Amino acid sequence: MTTLQELSPSARRIADAAQVLVQQVGYNGFSFEHISKLVGMRKASIHHHFASKVDLGVTVAQRYTHQFNDALRHILTSVKLAPQRLQAYADLFETTFLNDHHLCVCGMLGAESNSLDAAVNQEVRHFFQLNLAWITDVIEEGLASGSLKSPHSALVLAETLLSLLEGAMLVGRSMSAPLGPRRIGDVFLSSLIV
Amino acid sequence: MTTLQELSPSARRIADAAQVLVQQVGYNGFSFEHISKLVGMRKASIHHHFASKVDLGVTVAQRYTHQFNDALRHILTSVKLAPQRLQAYADLFETTFLNDHHLCVCGMLGAESNSLDAAVNQEVRHFFQLNLAWITDVIEEGLASGSLKSPHSALVLAETLLSLLEGAMLVGRSMSAPLGPRRIGDVFLSSLIV
DNA sequence: GTCTATACTTGGATAGAC
DNA sequence: GTCTATCCAAGTATAGAC
Predict the structure, then answer these.
(1) What letter does residue A190 receive in the DSSP assignment?
(2) How high is the pLDDT of residue B3?
(3) Is A122 touching B (CB cutoff 8 A)?
């Protein structure tokens, strides 16, 4: 299985194209032929970098999770208060959505999970677990320091916020004038902010 | 294009099977062969009832929307207060999710929308529009009668609730112990209920 | 209405030349 | 690393017998 560090320039272009396709049409919606057209290489050449479609799917999910994790760590260093940290978090989804109504890679793969290889599903679960842990920590600190207030536990609030943002992207896809993850997230966050 | 009234018993069994498959693996995740096995008929026989896969997809979305609409009207007649109406609404999603972690048909199709025929997408948009209008009406009545309270508009709250429930099903699929749409919905609704 | 048989296309994957 | 050529399976769809 290919890991992140070993990606050659060509492999990176392939993974980039595959990620966009996953966000646009899902794992079951694209083929090696689609990637071939996007990167200007033949199908056989793609197989040289990724032996199977599952390998490619796993790599896309791993990279996405890794990049997302970097963004989460950056928020912690650049934003100090829990309410603003959660708004910055919602902005990550907003940015993705504003890019041609792309879905979250793992949101899309999660929807398709019943037809995916276990190796891909494992990466998707890792993404959600990582996100839930991060949000929970932020909310817990906010509740403790008094910048947030709620009768619910931090973990329950975290699953609520994550569900809300993933759902806002999904529902927003089928609307002519969606509010988007940022504004939808604010509706919920405004009930938590002191 | 086949419409709801004309469905023969065989066509109904095929549409039922197709609906389950959409909820499990998505439109791009199933084939006529899968349906063939589920209903015990050959692929050619399925084509006799549905000329194309798009026809089948449209019928599935139409029927689902129609059944959902019946459930929404039933809530209005059997439940009188806005808070309880919204909880009953969340229970519709909970029931679907508890059935083997099935997704909402139109939630799944919405995720795949970029690869679907326009005729299918139109039905998906109709489903969301119908739901948003229903929720908006319920919330508007609740705000007017004083059973609900919020600084946000009914329409914004409706999109928030719908996004939350769709997202709770999607995210819940990849979790070992998801809270589920009902409990997730309650977290948000509790901030609205007076 | 259902079947067998089949046409046609696409998709994932491999062999081997360059 | 990339290519052409090819294999094989699966997927949508149709023709025609029963």
Answers:
(1) T
(2) 60
(3) no
Q: Counting Cβ atoms within 10 Å, is residue A15 exposed (0-12), middle (13-18) or buried (19+)?
A: buried
**A118 close to A35: Cβ distance less than 8 angstroms:** no
Beta-bridge partner residues of A193: A148
CB B122 within 8 A of CB B109: no
Give the residue whose CA sits closest to D15 at C1': B44
Q: Is the pLDDT of residue B1 over 60?
A: no
CATH number listed for the domain at residues B53-191 = 1.10.357.10
| Domain extents in chain A | 53-191
Neighbours of A115 (CB within 10 A): 17
- pLDDT 10s digits, B17-39: 999 999 999 999 999 999 999 99
Distance from CA(B44) to C1'(D14), angstroms, rounded: 9
Q: Of B129, B164, B169, B190, which to mutate for an interface test with A (greatest number of A Cβ within 10 Å)?
A: B164
Summarize the confidence of residues A125-153 as an average pLDDT.
98
A165 touches chain B (CB under 8 A): yes
d(CA B163, CA A163): 8
Q: Which nucleotide's C1' sits nearest to the alpha carbon of A30?
A: C11
Mean pLDDT within A142-155: 98
Alpha-carbon distance values, A143 to A44, A85, B66 (Å): 54, 13, 44
- pLDDT value, residue A6: 77
Asked whether the beta carbons of B111 and A28 are under 8 A apart, the reply is: no
Residue B75: count other Cβ atoms within 10 Å of its Cβ: 19
Confidence (pLDDT) at B6: 76
Q: Is A174 exposed, middle or buried (0-12, 13-18, 19+ CB in 10 A)?
A: buried
| Cβ-contact A19, A60 below 8 angstroms | yes
Measured torsion, CA atoms of residues B164, B168, B169, B170, in degrees rounded to the nearest 10: 100
- Mutate one of A96, A97, A163 to test the B interface: name it (highest B CB count within 10 A): A163
Q: pLDDT tens digits, residue range A66-123?
A: 999 999 999 999 999 999 999 999 999 999 999 999 999 999 999 999 999 999 999 9
The pLDDT-based confidence of A37 (bands split at 50, 70, 90) is: very high
